[in-house]
Amino acid sequence: RNGNSKPERSHTSMSMTEAPTFPPPPLCVVPLKETVCSGFGYSTDCYEAYKADSPFGKGIILGHAIVFVCLIVIGFANLFFYYNGAREIWGQSMVLTSSFYAILTSSFALCRSVWMLSRLLFIGAAMHNFFEWCIVIQLSFNTVRKQRKYVVLGTAFILVIISLVSLVPDLKAVTLLEQSCGVMLDLGLPLMFLRKWIYENRQLYRLPALAHSIHFVFTILPLIFANFFVGEISWVTTFGLEFLIYVSTPITHILYLIWSVEFDNKKRIQQDGDMAKRRVSRDEANTLENADVLQRPERYLFISFFLGLIPLVVIPNYILSPCPSDKFCKQNPTVFRTTSVNVYDGFGRAFQDRIAHYKLIENGTSARGNKKYELTKSISNPTQYNIFEEWASEKDYEAWVEGGLPSQVFRKDGPMGDIINGSMQAAGYRKPAPSSCHDEVHVGFFVDVKSSCRQVWSVITNFENDCSWIQDCLYVSTDPQNPKIRNLTMVDGEVLVQKLLYVKHDEFGYQLLPGSPALPGYKGVVTRTRSKVPGMGCGVGFKYQLHKGNFWEEQVESMYTTQQRSTIPYIRHLFANPGSWVDPKFEVEIVNGYIRHEALSGAHSSLANAARLNAPSNISKVQIAVEDRLKALAHEWFRIVEDPKRDAEPAREILAQNFSLLMSGTNIKTFEGFEAWLRGPADLVRASTHIIDSFNFESTSNKTHRVTMVLSWNGILRSNGEQWISQTEHIWNVVDHEDDNFARIKLEVQILVPFSPLDSCLLPA
């Protein structure tokens, strides 16, 4: 974070000794991150209250558990005093109050440990505050009758808070609501008690003043400040604040335990005396001396409410301010590496012994900057070993490699070279920055379509005239002043404004301009790549970059739902026809195309011959496996015309008597003419290949068939190495004789897409 600081460490890899005393500057408030917390079979939305994966994580969980047990013990200890006393609810009301106050606070510790800052925690906090209300009521009203009345009102107020906590959808608003009400009591009580004890010298308030002052300063404020620094791992903000909470909470409730017994004893004496003096019932008897009664507690609560906003609102927003977005988003320097080694079968122990001989694992683990250096053995492949490494930085890893031990073990050691089978496979990794570091949310989908990439791209990039790829778009009109701006009129009459950002070979970038404050813009990218799915022509990717904090971020899930239900089927339907388009092939596919045809011809011939051998004797063989015979013929023809040897002789076997080949405007009727064509016009390309886009046939008699094929052609010119493409339609009249190896053809070729250089068909980058 600055030039002299240590490299930033991840929570899981940082040890307690490496944790700084204070968070690195700037000291700021870490934004709360909403997540899902689960425990005991219950899951709920929550904010993180601490980092469980930090070096202090296990200690924090243990601290919560200890506080939970301590408060349960204190609560039931108070109940023990109640059981051995008068066992009257209003006669020992402060003992009962402090008992349940401790027990409810223990549940608060459990909720914070498991469900963190969640609605469940805030409901527990509201019930915790209820018993603080009960303490105020017993000190503010001098008869049991009035106390009952105001306990009912206090219960109603807490039920309202619990209802709001449960029903308000915004977790941030719920957090502020409960904390502001809670801090009003947690600050108001010590203000009241300290005034009575110090200013009015009422010793009855000495213990509660100490207890609640400790509670506010060392429990409530650390709880608030701990929320500011979630994610900032340091001894002060992580260990220090949590330690204060764990120590102060039991002390507070022990003091209340002692005081509640003392209070109820004094109250009972006061009531007995007043009952005898004034001849009134216990409900009407005074519970306190008039000087001990809290006067106008609402004044203190009103003041404490606004004072409580200082730690809740003023400090995090105006004094510390939120952390800059890049504070936790810098590149994590930690480097992860895996190295896979295969050994010869049965040599695993020998490999392990050579590793042990050099003490590679021990030296790696103790090397400067190393966090992990482990040797593992594959479960599924017993001859494969993997070395997993984790280094604080690339520099530390390079220093380890330059030290020479890995090279000495795996390259220079002769016995190791005889044990390892093949070369070692190594790979390096880094952790990506979390999504919260980015200003945009990325949404998108990828779909394979039957149309070729050239056909898809001709539609997508036709910015001036075509919006058919945008679902529900009726028509498009381009801005006459700026051809990179167009208006899209949708079926509902709405007009969207789209701006062209760039067009590259396989990427199309655009921006939907903001239409109104309620409909902000976003950026979109369309990509294309050759589909790897059999029967599909092109893979099309649609990506959207939505700015955080506006309308679109709230629509992410609905966008994905719409994509699955509507957009993807629409795109598949739009590009469902292969059409008259050609996908460019790689050079290796073109050069080896005739080999592929040779294999396919042989495969179809084998299928046809096998079918004819097994056919019933009463069926003519020429009626068996007709399609395989015709496909074998087709692939054999393409093998002959693509073979770089330009040998016309094999064609004698497949050309019909009195054949006619209408190709490139030339009608070839003799074998010599075909041979001249093969060595002349056909030889202008160094290599070529045909892809059958569609194959159909119709039997005109038992021995004759009419075949129609649409073919994509790729070729490499001999003169300059340019790649050319075309699409043609072949119409063949085929005669199939039972004793021939192949059926024989007459053919006619029509050019569907003119022969043209590949580059001339591509859009400029």
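^ that was protein a. below is b, sequence first then the tokens
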Amino acid sequence: FSTPYFPINPSMAAQPAAGQQNASLYVGDLTPDVTEAMLFDLFKAVGPVLSIRVCRDAVTRRSLGYAYVNFQNPVDAERALETLNYHTLKGAPLRIMWSHRDPSLRKAGAGNVFIKNLHKSIDNQTLYDTFSQFGNILSCKVATDSMSGESRGYGFVHFESEESAKAAIEKVNGMLLKSLQVYVGPFHRRAVRQKDASTTFTNLYIKDMKEGVTEEVLKAHFATFGTISSTCLKADKKGRPFAFVSFETHEEATKAVEESHDKYIETLCPGEDSKLYCQRAQKKSERMEEMRKKMSQLRARKMHEYSGSNLYVKNLDDTIDKDGLIAAFEKFGEITSAKVVYDDATPPVSKGFGFVCFKDAEAANKAISEMNGHMLGAKPLYVNVAQRKEVRQATLEVQYAARYSRMAGGGPQGAPPVAQPMGGYPMYGSPPGGFPGYPGAAPAYPYGPAGPGAMPRAGMMGAPKWAQQGMPGMGPFPPQGAPPMQMPGGPQVMQMRPAQQGQQPARRPMPGQGMPGSRPMQGGKGGPRPGMPPQMGGGPGQFRQPRSKPDAPAVPAAAPVPAADIPLTPSQLANMSPEQQKNALGERLFAAISAIQPEYAAKITGMLLEMDVTETLNLLESPDVLNSKIGEALAVLQAHEGEPKA
């Protein structure tokens, strides 16, 4: 998921072997817009840099916020760590540390110290200077707000040894830093802290109380369970009261929860049908995490329940409201809900889209086939299955990646035209439009030296299994992505352009006859001079093939299609052209459908391949959804052929 800034020898950029000094640095806390070029301009002043790469997401290609810088000399790497650590780049300080291949040191947590109640003015550099006197520091960071960039009042210091961490805790814990008393203790992961809190809590949160309740009434009820150390009674923005009650021991707090939670308390509850909420007090981040889990489970259950039956309707006329939407779609089946989305204006104005949810998927499919493109009011409708934002985004990313792959000459994602390095980043030090190291080299073409015709055409590809049924005697075509045939005598750089249907192949010019549109040679002869190669074309509008150098890079081959028994991933689909995606998905769908319905396997496969790429991939990953779609397709086929249902 990372892209090198410029090509290097892999053996040079490898991790140093045992006994050698490390020359690789980890650079963290990068802003999303920091590129390899910016980091190179910063680190090249320290010493020769072998490579720089910003780690990116495999699908979205967005920066993950960290990078690796490999120096040629370990001394330069150490100097960069000393001089550029916490240097500000794009408004954010860089956090630089040595790169370690073994993550055990980082995950073990040994020597990691947590500091809280820090003054807002204390930054990374100040924290580093404060704790560096106790030993070597691997990493140091003050937590900041992602929006404003202000300190959140706590930080972390990771020492090289456990002894240094213990010395820092002993000396600094309870001291005043910028007039604030700080807490310094060993770092514990969130899962460990939450587990410990659930078994040692003493603070309780109480809500669902009646209005006008007093703190004396609250204390009177909870004092029966043990000694109360403190209480706090407040009201939210809507005037609803809530409270915190802290006990001296965990056992007393546990008893209060058991006797009060989800029960009617006459002195605290507003009515007999209401029940009191009394549970362990949680931090906001912990509550938000639980709410996210509950919402995601509820959303997943709704998506499974309404899968394929919820429709998205776009390009609605301004006069169409909820009743008009229901009237247009109710003829296809029972509608459970419908909605037209409006803006916040006064009076509200339709945004031009809405949703219609049917009781079953069959009615929804019928509505899509008949209402997509149907004129409702003065506009044609767009009707399709409703998708979540993440699914739509993944679909668009796959489509854009496939389009980029075609523009790059059919190569896999991350393999752009010949004159560029992998990843699409500009070559450092290369002349515009040429190859690095070749002054005045021929310009690069977006489809490679052989032009767009170098890609295998759809008619030349091998037909998949699901498209070969009923065609006995057909010989197999060459597999897609196979290398071009080579002539004896050395490697062949150019790829032949396959002739289109009905087009005569180009003939070799006869002696004394030039190519069409070519300029006559000296002496009035159209043929080439002795010892000179014939021209590839020179007329206006014709493609002129630049002469290739012996070490010119070859045109990237088409993305290899995984075998039919290997599961597909979205990243693999993104590296394929649309034809390759259809063939790969069709092979796997045909094999899965043949095991369930061999008689109609080919027809059902063709029907299901009309769906989106992400929906088809979901069929391969969800056997239940695939069985449902096979049943729907089989019903349509039997109804069309007039055969009785089995």
